[in-house]
Specification:
By secondary structure, the protein is of the alpha+beta class. The protein contains three helices and five strands.
Length: 136
């Protein structure tokens, strides 16, 4: 897409600290990382969100994220990593080009997981039934 910042990075119009690339995928360091080494994994072709992304490309994104995550231990001394995706604006997606976050984690880095909330067995049963009925 013409105005997409990630598409501009793919084309070389905007510079980025590239860490991995193949014919379909590009990965580069986030300019506002949660920790140093935080990497964004994107398809080179533009897809707004996960639903628009072909399964083959989504699989390639996961493969790249796995490669990157596994080297963060030695590269930046990470003790673990989180893999995340904000899919659509309501979920916090800021750039409208599907992307995965590979975020190195360190003991006592101050980051916390999102809070869970209590639900009843009945609520979970009803929601599971609704989800199952809509999966093709």
């Amino acid at each position: 897409m013409k105005n997409c910042i990630f598409c501009k990075i793919v084309s070389g119009g905007i510079s980025a600290n590239r860490v991995y690339e193949n014919e379909k995928i590009l990965a580069f360091l986030d300019i506002n990382p949660v920790n140093l080494g935080h990497t964004l994994v994107i398809p080179k072709d533009h897809f707004d969100n996960l639903e628009q992304t072909p399964e083959e490309i989504a699989c390639e994104m996961i493969k790249a994220a796995k490669k990157i995550g596994s080297v963060l231990y030695g590269a930046v001394g990470a003790k673990g990593f989180n893999l995340g995706m904000n899919n659509k604006k309501a979920a916090g997606q800021v750039v409208g080009h599907v992307h995965l976050h590979v975020m190195p984690r360190f003991s006592n880095d101050g980051l916390k997981l999102w809070p869970g909330r209590e639900t009843s067995d009945n609520e979970r049963h009803k929601v599971a039934k609704k989800i199952r009925s809509r999966i093709a």
